[in-house]
């Protein structure tokens, strides 16, 4: 395995010839560490996702899964009309209450560690909701700690809130891929 060209010379999403076209699944992990900003704010990532996400419209063999701050990567990816790629999708992400509780509960020791864009920035929930056409109908969440995900009806898109949702999110992403491949091969 260590001599596999894919291991020795991995593809870089910043390379001029990189494309998501050959991928059936894009998984956007979350995390509140400041380093995630390089993905959330990347024009290159936005360009790739602006081309890819519309291809997930059902029926399709392509899918997107995102969790926590990974959903912000999508909400910040704009189409040519200025709308987010998920403007008409159902979604969830890290709930504002959970983000604020972690921030204020640890601020004395960790500073603004739990606020990716700084202490006075919007929560992930607020940032995502402002990019949706009708947040009241498109946003779903719960403050419970049992696994919770949202699957969109129009796109092969599934989202989760935080780490306890990851296993269920992964299972659903795989199910979307299997269903998409069945449709394509019929």
What does this structure look like?
With 186 residues, the chain is α/β, with parallel strands linked by helices. Helix content is 37%, strand content 9%. The protein has 8 helices and 4 strands; from the N terminus they run αβααβααααββα. The chain has a 4-stranded mixed beta sheet. Strand 3 (149-151) and strand 4 (157-160) form a beta hairpin. The mean pLDDT is 92.
Give the secondary structure arrangement, pairings included.
Layout: H1 5-8, E1 25-28, H2 37-40, H3 43-52, E2 63-67, H4 70-75, H5 96-110, H6 124-129, H7 135-138, E3 149-151, E4 157-160, H8 166-184
Parallel strand pairs: 1-2, 2-4
Antiparallel strand pairs: 3-4
Please state how the strands of the largest beta sheet are arranged side by side. 1-2-4-3
Cα Rg: 17 Å
Q: Report the order of strands and helices.
A: HEHHEHHHHEEH
Beta strands, count: 4
Helical content, roughly?
Answer: 25-40%
Main β-sheet: number of strands, strand sense, barrel status? 4 strands, mixed
- N- and C-termini, Cα separation: 33 Å
Strand content: 5-15%
Look at the structure and give the mean pLDDT.
92
Return residue spans where pLDDT drops below 50 for at least 5 consecutive residues.
none
Assembly form of the protein: single chain
Identify the overall geometry: globular
Structural class by sheet pairing and helices:
alpha/beta
Put simply, the count of helices is 8
């Amino acid at each position: 395995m260590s001599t596999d060209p894919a291991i020795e010379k991995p593809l870089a999403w910043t390379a001029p010839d990189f494309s998501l076209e050959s991928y059936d699944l894009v998984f956007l992990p979350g995390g509140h560490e400041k380093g995630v900003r390089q993905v959330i704010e990347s024009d290159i990532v936005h360009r790739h996702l602006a081309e890819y996400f519309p291809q997930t419209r059902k029926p399709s063999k392509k899918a997107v899964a995102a969790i926590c701050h990974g959903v912000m990567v999508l909400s910040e990816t704009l189409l040519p009309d200025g709308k987010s790629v998920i403007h008409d999708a159902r979604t969830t992400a890290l709930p504002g209450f959970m983000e604020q509780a972690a921030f204020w509960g640890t601020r004395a020791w960790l500073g603004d560690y739990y606020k990716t864009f700084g202490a006075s920035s919007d929560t992930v929930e607020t940032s995502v909701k402002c990019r949706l056409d009708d947040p009241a109908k498109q946003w779903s969440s719960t403050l419970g700690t049992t696994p919770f995900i949202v699957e969109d009806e129009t796109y092969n898109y599934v989202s989760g809130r935080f780490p306890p949702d990851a296993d269920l999110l992964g299972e659903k992403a795989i199910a979307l891929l299997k269903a998409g491949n069945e449709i394509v091969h019929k």
